[in-house]
Design a protein that fits this description.
This protein is α/β, with parallel strands linked by helices. It is 28% helix and 28% strand. Strands 1, 2, 3, 8, 9, 10, 11, 12, 14 and 15 form a ten-stranded mixed β-sheet that branches. Strand 2 (97-103) and strand 3 (108-113) form a beta hairpin. The longest helix is centred in the first third of the chain and has 25 residues, at 2-26. The termini are far apart. Mean pLDDT is 88; it is low at 1-34.
Length: 335
């Protein structure tokens, strides 16, 4: 009897241990709810799937927001995060969500698309360009067109006229785009000097000059730029955070005269650690690191280009390859 009871007790203990081992592995979001600093409702959105946010990205975004709130710098009930390791445009052609809007008081979580920095290819000197889907190169050098991960604060907005475009055959509309300036700290401290911020992913392209002296935007000769409105929500930027027009309007209205925080992943330390793990033949997860798996397969090894290294290269390249004289913009066919 004693032996049978002992065997039964051991079996029950093994069953409980097996259950304890299985439960955390069944859901990454379940593990997130056990993080003491993340509310249970928000932890349900943690993961690697569509509409989810990776745990380290959320934790750092929350820590930055809480710090700025405690300092009295931020009173906005919402904060932002971006995961630049995720794909920008998945195989189905739709814009991927990797920019996060979190409002904890209202318990709302929203994911929208956002572009990454295009980088540049300085032919024969340095290639730090990025593809459309995944970002391989990151950095904080002037004129690099690269995304820089780290901490930001949203600041003032500025709206500028970009040109007219045809809304219909008979109607032309002025396109006014609002730019939301970011301020950074540490490696993102030169965000203002680099003109890094957020704006709608749209521009007026294929411009010609049309005679319209009555327009408030006419130049001294009475001409205004006229072109085609091009939207590139699934495209790349000059290093800024770009959104679709509708998302940009909502995001900018949320922070106008009421700043908040934005945390962009990855930082240079993350990039270097992942690159080291890949070089050693390890996956980031095996090394306790995070990078989106599908993008890592595409880019191979990520790289961070510090401004101390890259800026002198860009300056010298400009000296060796001066820009050609600007061509005059053609006059529109008035017929």
């Amino acid at each position: 009897m004693r032996l049978r009871y002992a065997l039964r007790s051991v079996a029950q203990m093994l069953s409980l241990c097996s259950l304890a081992l299985v439960i955390p592995a069944t859901s990454q979001s379940l593990a997130a709810t056990r993080q003491p600093d993340i509310p249970a409702w928000l932890g349900a959105y943690v993961g690697a799937g569509d509409g989810q946010i990776a745990l380290p990205v959320l934790q750092r975004a929350r820590a930055l927001y809480m710090r700025k709130v405690s300092e009295g710098t931020v009173k906005n009930p919402c904060y932002f995060a971006m995961d630049a390791t995720r794909p920008n445009t998945p195989n189905d052609g739709k814009s991927a969500g990797r920019f996060y809007i979190v409002c904890e008081a209202a318990q709302t979580f929203r994911v929208v698309s956002s572009g990454h920095g295009s980088g540049r290819d300085l032919k024969g000197v340095a290639d730090f360009g990025n593809g459309r889907m995944c970002a391989k190169n990151f950095g904080n050098a002037m004129d690099s067109n690269l995304t820089t991960g780290g901490s930001y604060l949203t600041e003032e907005t500025k709206t500028t006229f970009k040109g007219y475009y045809k809304l219909s055959q008979a109607k032309e509309v002025a396109y006014l785009r609002t730019f939301l300036q970011f301020d950074g700290e540490g490696e993102t401290a030169n965000a203002r000097q680099r003109a890094i911020g957020g704006h709608a992913a749209a521009k007026v392209a294929g411009i010609c000059m049309k005679k319209d002296p009555q327009s408030p935007y006419a130049n001294r000769d009475g001409y205004v730029p006229l072109g085609k409105l091009v939207e590139y929500a699934g495209g790349r930027s000059d290093g800024c955070t770009s959104w679709s027009a509708s998302d940009a309007n909502q995001i900018i209205s949320m922070v106008k005269d009421n700043p908040t925080t934005l945390y962009i992943y990855p930082e240079s330390s993350d990039i270097k650690a992942v690159a080291k793990a890949v070089a050693a033949g390890h996956s980031p997860a095996q090394s306790g690191l995070y990078w989106n798996e599908s993008c890592l397969k595409e880019i191979g090894t990520p790289k961070f280009w510090p401004k101390e290294t890259l800026e002198p290269i860009i300056v010298q390249y400009k000296k060796d390859h001066p820009a050609p004289p600007a061509r005059p913009i053609p006059i529109c066919d008035q017929q």
